[in-house]
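Quick question, first post here. What does this chain look like in 3D?
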Amino acid sequence: MSLRRRLTLSLFTILVLFAINVGTHFWGSYARSESMVAYRQAVSAGQLSGELGKQLEDQRQKILVLSTLRENTDDRLGDGDRASALEGIRATRGTLEALGGMVSDVTALQYQRLQESSNRLLQSWEGFYERYNDDAWQGDIDDPIPYLETSQRLKELEQRQAFIAVQRANIIDRTIALTDRITVLGFIASIFLTATLGFFLVRYTNDNLKRLKRGTQRLGEGDLDFRISDINDDGELGDLANAFNRMSDKLRRAIDEEKEAKQSADEANAAKSRFLANVSHELRTPLNAIIGYSEMLHDELDDDEPVDRGQFQTDLDKIVLSGRQLLALIDDILDLSKIETGKMQLAMEHFKPGEVLTMTVDALAPVLRRNGNTLRCDDFSGLPEIYNDAVKFRQIMVNLLSNAAKFTDNGLIEVKAQQDEASGDLIVEVSDSGIGMTEDQQAQVFEVFVQADDSTSHLYGGSGLGLAICRDFCELMGGSISVASTPGEGSRFSVRLPVAPASVPADA
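> Answer (accepted):
Ran it through. Tokens below.
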């Protein structure tokens, strides 16, 4: 029998004993609880019976006093006194009804007799109070028989309730004693069985583990021909011995695999070196804008014509904007690690995406002109205002336009934006007529540090961060990005962002 089966059987046996103990405990708890509830009801009923007897006695004394006063004086019973007396009778009826709510089958007959006699007595008392001021009324209110009969019925009920309380107490005592004996016996049996099973399992496991230890020592010493064949187990331990035997055959092949792993590590280090060499990809675009506008301003100052201060100021603003984008790009390299660790946060604000698109396109105009490309843009004035992170939206557009300009020479770059009528999302498309990509290249274009191939990095530069940042930012802002491309015909990147605030995550 395998070790797993032995352990399973032992565990099942222990669980059965444990279940019996638990079941006995809960059965005893339930029985004690039921008996205790009945006992408490009997005690409460006895208390109500005593309270009812006191109320009847008080009412009887008042009736006798008022009856004497009525016979010997001409005093009248006031409305307030009558109402108070009737309220006392109603309280007595309430106590009687409450007592009826605690009646069990064994006390139902005594309570029924008490209720009949009490109702007759209380009705006669109510009639006395209502006709007290009627001189013509003559009632036999002094007759003690109804009161004595009610008292007798109440006494019978109290005796019956006391008897039940004693019986319930005896049942509770017997139940506690029985469950305690069963629990103790089950506990002792569980300890004995657990100790016995544990002893045999430990001895069985220890013998087999010693054989395994001896085999591993031989293998560790370099004896790859040694085989572990004396394991008396057809389960896990036997499988472990077979695994050690197979391991000796694989150790020889592991030497060759180690060489291959070293070669893979060297390739990973080379990829890291290429990334460090190409990290200027994310920094080149704003630098080109700054240098381009600076050269334009320098050339304009060398001309003899008067300086157009307004245009001069506009170009300087674009240089400042590009400088800020350069600083943001440096921060984006750190943002990748923040995104991976879930610490990146959004700076939510209401902004007009059309204005951001216009500013971004104007800032990248020198880069586009340098490659001889033509930029075609939609009218962005009709775009809705959205609630999201404007800085990250601008960075997405900068990266997409920079890539389009980098991989397109003397071509066309288009920027389109619209609101999806079905979902209400904002859709921005950046397309170019550049080199395009194959399907395999499209599948990995959004991965970190990945470009189409090595020749792309050598010819066009870049570290592979730009589109990875776009993907992470789009997902962080509650949207998505996709690409459609044909080799030699260009690419089209589509960005979809939510407009409604409720669909945007607060942070990541």
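The chain has a mean pLDDT of 79.
Residues 68 and 286 are 115 Å apart (CA to CA).
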